[in-house]
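Reviewer 2 asked us to include a model.

Predict the structure of this chain.
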Amino acid sequence: MPAKTQSTVPSNRAGQILRALVESFIRDGHPVGSRKLAKASGIDLSPATIRNVMADLEELGFIASPHTSAGRVPTARGYRLFVDTLVKLRPPASRELAALQDQIVDDAGADVKGLAAAASAALSSLTSLAGLVTIPRQQHLTLRQVEFLPISDRRVLAILVINDSEVQNRVLTMERDYSNDELQRAANFLNEHYAGKELSEIRSQVLDELRRTRETVNQLMIDTISIAQKAFDLDGSQPEYIIAGETKLMGFDELSDIDKLRQLFDAFNRQRDILRLLDRSIAADGVQIFIGEESGYQLLDDCSVVTAPYRVDDEIVGVLGVIGPTRMAYERVIPIVDITAKLVGAALNSSH
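Predicted model (structure tokens):
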């Protein structure tokens, strides 16, 4: 999860008021005034006292006052403090959990894309947000053989035989044209030195070889490694994901700007930027929450992203989560994302 806010609320009373304000705004979507908070259950304070506390919270940057209202709304910083220390998580009801489990377990025997599609649809259905699930990374990809064929316009067809029988064809765009002989020499070298090794191991070894080769200026090796970098996805490319329910985002007032929505949907289709954000969750343990600008992606400034990694044999192989407005029901969404990640991991473990 992004770093917790450094400032804390000045008192338990202020925390109680901030929690009530955030919960009210999430529920109704309207700025919250002191009179409304005075009527909130559990707050036994006068409106005047509440107004003073709200002034302190506003000064600290946890809430803000819209121009057209005397009420207050949470800021991204207020939401961050809320999810870090104040939220009261509410796990899904037994019927919701049963429906989620059935939907995912029913697809446990299907291909991994089918499972990812079922999980993303289930996330969207339960949360009324956009659900997304990365395609599980295969844990062990062993190179059996590689072959390169020139196509045209500095493009090369790489034919990779992975594991026992899987064949992957990749079109590589190179810096220059390569002859048949150059490509054959590169393939011969890679097959001789790297056949039988896992792609992850080949990636690190090829990068080490590149550093050494630059010092010796061995043109054959430089050519070979340049081709291998492209063939083995050494540019840091990530697995694709499946998204469901993105049109539900159109129903939120905060995300009603048509131009922004169009750009956001384009980003969903391009995948690259969203995948870069999801990749930050792979290195972390448990549920991660990115609120507004914390995503580092301008199109998500009005959104929150809640993610969790899922595992096979205790190894993280993918990430799933939801995207919605910052005004989302975190108390429901966080447990749903967490449980879905565990169910997807269990389904994958039982199917291999």
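The first strand starts at residue 63 and ends at 64. The chain has twelve helices and ten strands. We have added this to the supplementary material.
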